[in-house]
Amino acid sequence: MLINKEMDDYELLDASLGMKYERWGKYYLLRPDPEALWDNGDLKEKYEGKIDGIYYRSKTGGGSWTNLKKIPEKWTIKYKDLTFNIKEMGFKHTGIFPEQAANWDFMYGKIKESKRNVKVLNLFAYTGGATCACMKAGAEVVHVDSSRGMVEWAKENVASSKLDTTKIRYIVDDCIKFVKREIRRGHKYDAIIMDPPSYGRGSGGEVWSFSKNILELINLCMELLSDKPLFFQINSYTTGISPVVLENILKLTINKKYTGKITCDEIGLKAKNNDLILPCGIFGRWESA
Length: 289
What we know:
By secondary structure, the protein is an alpha/beta fold. Helix content is 27%, strand content 33%. It has an eight-stranded mixed β-sheet, with helices on both faces. The two termini are 22 Å apart.
């Protein structure tokens, strides 16, 4: 399992009974996590007086935050030389998936080591964690997401991290539609990142399903790769999908055309207050030899 160990401004402190207790900078949040099926005590009782905000699910869907102490509408956390804006969002999110920092490190290192101009396509790019890491390494990035709000948030993160705004293009669009247009335009990329949801809707109401559409998207993206690509990264939080599924897809697509290495595994976070590990999805990666 790939586990991030270096994010000083974030810590997973504990997880139990469908909840996780975390530190985001100086604020301590308790929120649901479906992977924490074990019983390590009631976290609300266990950390009473040490919780700033709790996310409660609604019986009718969604949920809301209850702040027990004063929390600003927005605050920042740092990861190495990057600065990210954190907010309490609906559906329990905060704007960053800290476990992905281990992947950001890989991308940064691969781009730096290449010692050439690198163009990256980031699909389902959310608030731009991977975008910022690639830009910090010197790459040009095309950042694509169907949510205008998430793209605006990514702009905030790029600005907070003091990155070169001439090296990024923001696109609000359905990812499959955008990739098809890029193929017609003859554009090429040295690296492609995708972090697709299990289900979603594009900017024009297009329906996305990971199980139905992921192979189509990967095959389309194959047509966008340059002659000497650096890496192809897929992340997934879709329940029931094994890392072996991504490994098999990469073997039968990109690895048939380019010589390289495939790495597929789970990704997770280690709790600081015990030796428990919280699974946080899977990733599949092809990288040049």
